[in-house]
C-alpha cells in the first residue's frame, strides 16, 4: 500500500479529507508489575504496519461531532473517534465540530490497536484542521485518557514503551514483511489482563535491539499463554505459523504474526493458510504516515 499523498494541506477546510490510521504490532510484551489502580506495567516495542483504517473528516462550523458511518458493534457515543474529537474540543475550547467517517479495515479485538489508532488519527487531524496548535506531547497525554495504546500512534515512530505503554523512546526496527493471521475470535483486553494465571513479574530489561533473530532472543509476549488457554483458536494459528518462522501474538490477541525476509516468502506462507484464518501480508513501518502533520 502506498502511504504517500494521503493528506493535501491545500484542500478547502469544509471538503472531506482522508487520514490514515495504521495498525500496530507489539514485537514483544513483558508484564513487569501492576499499579495500585489495577493497570499493568509493561515493556513492549511497537511498530506500525500498512493495514490501515481511513478516517474521513469534514469540519463543521456548528460545533457538532457526528459519526456518519456505521460500525454495528460500537454505538457512536462509545466510538473512540467521537470520544477523541470531543476530548480535543473540551481541552481546547474549540468552537468547530466535525463529521467523521470511518472505513474500518483493521479487525477489532485483534491486538492491532485499531480503535486506538483511529483515536490518535482524529486527535492529530483535528488539531491540524481546527488549528488548535497543541504539540505532540500534549496530544499524547490527551490520548492516554482514551486508552493505553493511543499515545504511540500520536508519537508516530516505532517505539520501546514502558509504564502502561505511554513512556516512549523511538527505536529503529527493520521494515520487514510479516504474515499476519486473525483467528476467528475477538479477545477482550481486560479479560487477559485480569486472568489469575497471568505472569506479572517478568524482570525488566534494557531497551532491546531489533536487528535479527539473535537480538530478539528472550523476547516474548507474556499475554500469549493466557490468551491461548482462554481462546484455543489463537494457539492453533500460532502452531500453523510456527512451522515456517518464529511466531508471536500481538498485544492481547487474537492476531498472531511472523517475520519473513521478503514479500515473496511471506506470500508463499500466506497462500498455505488453512480455512478459517484470515491472512494478510503486511509491511512494517517506523514512521507513522501522519508524523509530519502539525
Ligand atoms: C495490550 C496492549 O494492546 C499492548 O499494546 C495495550 O496495553 C492495551 O491497550 P488498550 O487496548 O488501549 O487498553 P485500554 O483500553 O487502555 O485498557 C483496556 C483494559 O485492559 C487492562 N489494561 C490495559 C493496559 C495495561 N497496561 N494494563 C491493563 O491492565 C485494563 O483492565 C483496562 O481496563
Ligand atoms: N473506532 C473504533 N474502532 C474499533 N474499536 C472501537 C472503536 N471505538 C471503540 N471501539 C471499542 O474498542 C474495542 C477494542 O478495539 P481495538 O480495535 O482497539 O482492539 P484491539 O485491536 O484489541 O486493541 P488493543 O491492541 O489496543 O488492545 C472494540 O472491541 C470496540 O468495542
Automatic annotation (TrEMBL):
Task: Spell out the catalytic residues.
Answer: 24, 149
Q: Where does ATP bind?
A: 107-117
Q: Which gene encodes it?
A: ispE
Q: Where is the GHMP kinase N-terminal domain?
A: 80-156
Q: What is its EC number?
A: 2.7.1.148
Annotated function: Catalyzes the phosphorylation of the position 2 hydroxy group of 4-diphosphocytidyl-2C-methyl-D-erythritol.
Q: According to its UniProt record, which protein family does this protein belong to?
A: Belongs to the GHMP kinase family. IspE subfamily.
Q: Which HAMAP family match?
A: IspE
| Alphabetized NCBIfam families for the sequence | ispE (TIGR00154)
Keyword annotations for this protein? ATP-binding, Isoprene biosynthesis, Kinase, Nucleotide-binding, Transferase
Residues in GHMP kinase C-terminal domain copies: 220-272
Q: GO terms for biological process?
A: isopentenyl diphosphate biosynthetic process, methylerythritol 4-phosphate pathway; terpenoid biosynthetic process
| Pathway entry | Isoprenoid biosynthesis; isopentenyl diphosphate biosynthesis via DXP pathway; isopentenyl diphosphate from 1-deoxy-D-xylulose 5-phosphate: step 3/6
- What Gene3D superfamilies does its record include? 3.30.230.10, GHMP kinase, C-terminal domain
From the Swiss-Prot or TrEMBL record, give the protein name: 4-diphosphocytidyl-2-C-methyl-D-erythritol kinase
Quote one Gene Ontology molecular function term: ATP binding
Amino acid at each position: 500500500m502506498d502511504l504517500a499523498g494521503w493528506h493535501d494541506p491545500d484542500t478547502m477546510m469544509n471538503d472531506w479529507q482522508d487520514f490514515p490510521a495504521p495498525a500496530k504490532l507489539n514485537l514483544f510484551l513483558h508484564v513487569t508489575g501492576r499499579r495500585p489502580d489495577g493497570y499493568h506495567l509493561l515493556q513492549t516495542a511497537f511498530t506500525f504496519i500498512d493495514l490501515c483504517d481511513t478516517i474521513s473528516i469534514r469540519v463543521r462550523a456548528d460545533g457538532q461531532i457526528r459519526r456518519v458511518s456505521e460500525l454495528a458493534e460500537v454505538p457512536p457515543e462509545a466510538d473512540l473517534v467521537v470520544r477523541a474529537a470531543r476530548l480535543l474540543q473540551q481541552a481546547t475550547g474549540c468552537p468547530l465540530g466535525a463529521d467523521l467517517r470511518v472505513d474500518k479495515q483493521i479487525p477489532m479485538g485483534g491486538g492491532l490497536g485499531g480503535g486506538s489508532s483511529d483515536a490518535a488519527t482524529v486527535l492529530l487531524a483535528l488539531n491540524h484542521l481546527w488549528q488548535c496548535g497543541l504539540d505532540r506531547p500534549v496530544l499524547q497525554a490527551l490520548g492516554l485518557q482514551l486508552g493505553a495504546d493511543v499515545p504511540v500512534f500520536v508519537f508516530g515512530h516505532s517505539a520501546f514503551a514502558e509504564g502502561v505503554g505511554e513512556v516512549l523512546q523511538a527505536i529503529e526496527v527493520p521494515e520487514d514483511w510479516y504474515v499476519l493471521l486473525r483467528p476467528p475470535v475477538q479477545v477482550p483486553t481486560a479479560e487477559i489482563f485480569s486472568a489469575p494465571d497471568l505472569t506479572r513479574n517478568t524482570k525488566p530489561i534494557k531497551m532491546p535491539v531489533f536487528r535479527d533473530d539473535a537480538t530478539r532472543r528472550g523476547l516474548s509476549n507474556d499475554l500469549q499463554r493466557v490468551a491461548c488457554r482462554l481462546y484455543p483458536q489463537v494457539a492453533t494459528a500460532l502452531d500453523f505459523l510456527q512451522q515456517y518462522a518464529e511466531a508471536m501474538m500481538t498485544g492481547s490477541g487474537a492476531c498472531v504474526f511472523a517475520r519473513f525476509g521478503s514479500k515473496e516468502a511471506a506470500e508463499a506462507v500466506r497462500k498455505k493458510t488453512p480455512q478459517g484464518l484470515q491472512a494478510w501480508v503486511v509491511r512494517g513501518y517506523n514512521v507513522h504516515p501522519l508524523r509530519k502533520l502539525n
